[in-house]
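Design a sequence for this backbone.
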């Protein structure tokens, strides 16, 4: 299923000082003292340069624009998207199809995720152990993952071993074995992991938030990894059918990033095409391509955990999807609220009040929908005051909008995050693959970067004031009496009770 500190600067400074040729000063045995100045050199006091006390002025920030994605010419499928980076002899390869948990049929939640898991359990002539060992010999590890909107087979390897890795990836993509004995081992283990999820309060809050926010029947309403009832009903034939429908060359895009040229990219596609053949499969069942009409959502939801030492709190409210014009402004508006360590929520609840180890907000955006989310876990006895502070900070920010300095900091924060992502072949590969899952052309990445840079202060303020978080649905997981009292103390209605998979009780 699917920190940061620097200490080397001071060490470097000390080393540099000792490398200037001056002999070390050794203090006498009875304690340190100041060595006398040589008789021939009078002691003088040099004036301190004014520059030492002057803080250097920062230049204007440089706008970030990602490297353009090249598309391999030709009508052959699959398409190949390339970002060349020759700084290191490393290549990241992803095979992406734009089908994921969104395409799980009703009553089969978890099907895409389990298909991805079973694709790792043997392919071509190799069983599960042999395929893992073959990648290990290449110094690589292949993963197959399902998300909401896509499925990806990924491997990163040195350039000289790329074609050997492609040979293995071709088997994983086109010829997974789907053996009954591996299914008999995998399904119970998956069910065990789902059972463990029920005992992780924040994981439960996330699952319940999906069910409540999107509503029954929406393709995002169930978790990617499914739920126990649906997974128990799956059979290996369901896995085989889903793979045959989703993993076809005409659906796929090969993403290559790193030290790779056009000739190598063509060789990669030729190898994949030569193996990626098979009988035509019927199309996947149609799922909604747009979110359904808004439905009434409960204001408060309770998932009971008797005598829990902590309360998990999650607020969720509507927000623009990844393809909406307002997406960039909404993402920038999130940063002052809870999108960084120095955000309002974290400064208040962690640094000032000490209610939590951390609290974050996020603007979650996928192909069909988006949402504003706030998450934290607090000690049970401070559930009511912590909730009051969350609602207060949300109310203040959405009423007044962020300050000018907060908007500028938000721009810098997201710009640095994007730059860091584009510093590694794996980061570039992941971002390009996300565009495939969203169903957008490769030029979308550059257009999105321009949108972030061009978003005005006024647009960020407007997006902040448009946040629906003041009326968000609040999910609380923990002790029932404590949570009910906290809701009542904050003037909120009596909660609707749900089970750990979002089922109504």
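Sequence:
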């Amino acid at each position: 299923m699917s920190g940061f500190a620097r200490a080397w600067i001071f060490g470097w400074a000390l080393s540099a000082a000792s490398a200037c040729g001056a002999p070390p000063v050794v203090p006498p045995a009875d304690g340190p003292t100041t060595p006398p100045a040589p008789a021939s050199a009078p002691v003088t006091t040099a004036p301190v340069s004014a520059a030492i006390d002057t803080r250097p002025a920062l230049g204007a920030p440089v706008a970030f624009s990602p490297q353009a994605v090249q598309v391999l010419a030709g009508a052959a499928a699959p398409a190949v998207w390339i970002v060349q980076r020759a700084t290191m002899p490393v290549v990241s390869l992803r095979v992406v199809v734009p089908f994921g948990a969104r395409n799980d049929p009703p009553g089969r939640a978890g099907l895409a995720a389990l298909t991805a898991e079973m694709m790792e359990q043997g392919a071509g002539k190799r069983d599960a152990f042999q395929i893992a060992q073959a990648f290990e010999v290449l110094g690589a590890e292949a993963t197959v993952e399902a998300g909401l909107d896509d499925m990806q087979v990924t491997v990163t390897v040195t350039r000289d071993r790329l074609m050997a890795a492609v040979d293995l990836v071709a088997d994983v993509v086109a010829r997974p074995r789907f053996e009954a004995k591996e299914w008999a081992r995998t399904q119970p283990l998956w069910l065990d992991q789902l059972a463990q999820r029920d005992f992780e309060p924040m994981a439960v809050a996330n699952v319940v938030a999906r069910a409540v926010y999107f509503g029954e029947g929406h393709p995002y309403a169930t978790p990617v990894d499914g739920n126990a009832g649906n997974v128990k009903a799956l059979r290996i034939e369901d896995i085989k059918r889903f793979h045959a429908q989703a993993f076809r060359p005409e659906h796929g895009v090969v993403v290559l990033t790193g030290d790779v040229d056009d000739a190598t990219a063509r060789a990669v596609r030729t190898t994949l095409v030569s193996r990626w053949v098979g009988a035509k499969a019927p199309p996947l069942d149609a799922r909604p391509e747009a979110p359904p009409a808004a439905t009434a959502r409960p204001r408060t939801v309770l998932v009971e955990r008797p005598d829990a030492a902590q309360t998990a709190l999650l607020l969720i409210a509507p927000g623009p999807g990844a393809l909406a014009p307002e997406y960039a402004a909404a993402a920038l508006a999130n940063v002052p609220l809870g999108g960084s360590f120095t955000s309002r929520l974290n400064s208040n609840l962690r640094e000032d009040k000490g209610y939590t180890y951390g609290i974050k907000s996020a603007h979650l955006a996928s192909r069909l929908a988006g949402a504003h989310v706030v998450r934290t876990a607090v000690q049970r006895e401070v559930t009511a005051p912590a909730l009051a502070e969350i609602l207060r900070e949300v109310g203040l920010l959405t009423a007044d909008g962020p300050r000018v300095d907060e908007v500028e900091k938000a721009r810098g924060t997201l710009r640095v995050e994007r730059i860091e992502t584009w510093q590694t072949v794996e980061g570039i590969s992941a971002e390009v693959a996300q565009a495939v899952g969203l169903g957008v052309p490769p030029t979308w990445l550059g257009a999105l970067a321009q949108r972030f840079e061009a978003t005005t202060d006024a647009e960020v303020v407007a997006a902040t004031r448009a946040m629906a978080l003041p009326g968000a649905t609040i999910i609380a997981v923990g002790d029932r009496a404590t949570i009910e009292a906290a809701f009542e103390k904050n003037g909120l209605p009596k909660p609707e009770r749900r089970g750990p998979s979002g089922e109504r009780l």
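DSSP finds 17 helices and 14 strands in the chain.
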